[in-house]
Amino acid sequence: MKYITIIVTRGAILGNIEGPRQIFTEVNELMERMGKQPLFKIQLAGLTAESQLNDGLYTISTLLLKDIKKNDLVIIPAMYGDLQKAVEANHDFIPWIINEYKAGAELASLCLGAFLLASTGLLKGKKCATHWLAANAFRQMFPDVNLIEDRIITDENGIYSSGGAYSSLNLILYLVEKFAGRETAVFCSKAFQIDFQRNSQSPFIIFTGQKEHEDQPIRKAQEFIENNFQNKITVDQLAAMFALSRRNLERRFKKATANTVVEYIQRVKIEAAKKSLETGRKSISEVMYDVGYSDTKAFRNTFKKITGLSPLGYRNKYNKSADVLLT
């Protein structure tokens, strides 16, 4: 039997507690219907015997951390609000999480729970996923963690993490498959109607540019790109415009935005294309020209690299009138 502890942090998101609990419970009930023993012992644990969520709207009864005698997996849910303050409010969980990992338990963070997990220091040099909306804040707080922004699941040295919001349930299915087998995971996927083996957040990411930095020339370069993306923009052009050497511009741009200059230009162009494909009635070729591409293959390849979908696939997914549009 696997002992699974879902910690109920201060400010935890209820869905990240109840969702995993329901899925692991369903696995146990499936085992019982098959005449087998339950696979999981599910424990909710907190710093106090009762934990309030959503400003007191929900109250959950929990075991105290010190009363957890056996543990194979610790699940860390997402948290609401200011993430720096949320980590500070849950600081007392950190030594316990570290001790459990050192004692052999695996760890899994869901969505913004990655911030608490990273605060343990156990993610240093390791891969991690979190909600794409919080990617910039995560990089600033934990520069020594290898954030994989587009991934839904990471798995490294007994530490798992998931992408944002309800994609956390994809990690739970991944763990069900690992502990209970693929057939059981497929059953849970169907029972809870969760897309199985979805591995990318890319189709959901909205690129807004990373401007939470103090490098003013780089900020101005970003603004120039965003205001002129329809035109051909080169690194040398930007370097001359802001009186920087090419090497210095590229170094500072990457440090400030986590993108190279070329990557940033591509992402701005593709974001504009996405918006057009979501709401407009232009053909793929018209959209391509509007955002400054003239090479169909280059446009399609860049679009798929960034979104995980072809331009046509993206439009079919998000434009309600896609069935009557022409390519």
Walk me through what this model shows:
The chain has about 325 residues and is α/β, with parallel strands linked by helices. The protein folds into 2 domains: about 200 residues, Class I glutamine amidotransferase (GATase) domain (Rossmann fold, 3-Layer(aba) Sandwich), CATH 3.40.50.880; about 110 residues, Arc Repressor Mutant, subunit A (Orthogonal Bundle). About 45% of the residues lie in helices and about 15% in strands. The chain is built from 14 helices and 11 strands. The strands form 3 sheets. It has a 7-stranded mixed β-sheet, sandwiched between helices. A two-stranded antiparallel ribbon has the order 3-4. Strands 8-9 form a two-stranded parallel ribbon. A hairpin with a 4-residue loop joins β3 and β4. α1 packs parallel to α6, α9 packs across α10 and α11 crosses α14. It is globular and about 65 Å long. It starts with a strand and ends in a 9-residue tail after the last helix.
H/E element sequence: EHEEEEEHHEHEHEEEHHHHHHHHH
Distance between the termini: 54 Å
CATH superfamily of the largest domain: Class I glutamine amidotransferase (GATase) domain
Q: Percent of residues in helical segments?
A: 40-55%
Number of strands: 11
What is the number of helical segments per DSSP (H or I, 4+ residues)? Answer: 14
Question: What is the total number of structural domains?
Answer: 2
Shape verdict = globular
Mean pLDDT score, rounded?
94
Report on the biggest sheet: 7 strands, mixed
| Assembly state (oligomeric) | single chain
Gross CATH architecture of the largest domain:
3-Layer(aba) Sandwich
Strand order of the largest sheet: 5-2-1-6-7-11-10
What fold name stands as the CATH topology of the largest domain? Answer: Rossmann fold
Structural class: alpha/beta
